[in-house]
Amino acid sequence: MDNLLEIKDLSKSFILHNLGKNIQAVKDITIQIKKGEFIGITGKSGSGKSTILKSIYGTYRLQEGSIWYDSTHYGPINLAKATEREMIYLRKHEIGYVSQFLNVMPRTTARQLVTEAILEMGQTKEIAHMETEKILDHFELGRELWDSYPATFSGGEKLRLNIARAMVKRPRLLLLDEPTASLDHESKWKVKTLLEQLMKEGTTMLGIFHDLEFMNGLVNKEYSMKNGQFSRTIQKNITISL
């Protein structure tokens, strides 16, 4: 495959049984993403942006369409038809996901969360320990929080930890669902620095953004969504440095 990701005719709807309604979330979405490219998706809340990301990650199953991903381990694989075991492997080793929310085991510390993510990639405990401290420092999570449970963190601290855990694995494909939603200006700058670093290392990214200022200067192409479909495409003048 010339592209890392090829989505064709993706459609997804939800049935509201209590209301007897069928809600069309996205319809006939087609997009091709080259290796090392960063694609941004914009649009109002409810336009279908998150549905695309969750369909790629396997959280949602499609009614129609295909999502072909060029996996290092499996070769070309249709994520729309991948088994649960295949998706678990890809999430651990190739595809990262950053959401606005942090869902973790209740008695797992911030340090353990990041360290375990690195160990999943086959690194030694020594390297995992060093990389964990490095990225927690980068996001300025106070050292007093490292061995605390994230349930006690503020919304911004949880989001920074979520981003750190995904980025430290350096995934081949990184999905970003409003990665700066509750961050201050300085924290956004730190996220942007790491995203630029991942781009230089060849990570392919697909992100949802409301913060258009943050997105500018990062993405190669912007897709604007309206009523579950792409309404326009804007090419950005960004050079990919591999």
TrEMBL record:
Keyword annotations: ATP-binding, Nucleotide-binding, Transferase
UniProt superkingdom: Bacteria
SMART domains in the cross-refs: AAA
Gene3D superfamilies: P-loop containing nucleotide triphosphate hydrolases
EC number: 2.7.8.37
Keyword Lipid metabolism attributed: no
InterPro entries: AAA+_ATPase, ABC_transporter-like_ATP-bd, ABC_transpr_LolD-like, P-loop_NTPase
Organism: Peribacillus huizhouensis
PROSITE patterns the UniProt entry points to: ABC_TRANSPORTER_2
Species lineage: Bacteria, Bacillati, Bacillota, Bacilli, Bacillales
Domain ABC transporter, first and last residues per copy: 5-242
One GO molecular-function entry: alpha-D-ribose 1-methylphosphonate 5-triphosphate synthase activity
Name of this chain's protein: Alpha-D-ribose 1-methylphosphonate 5-triphosphate synthase subunit PhnL
Enzymatic class: transferase
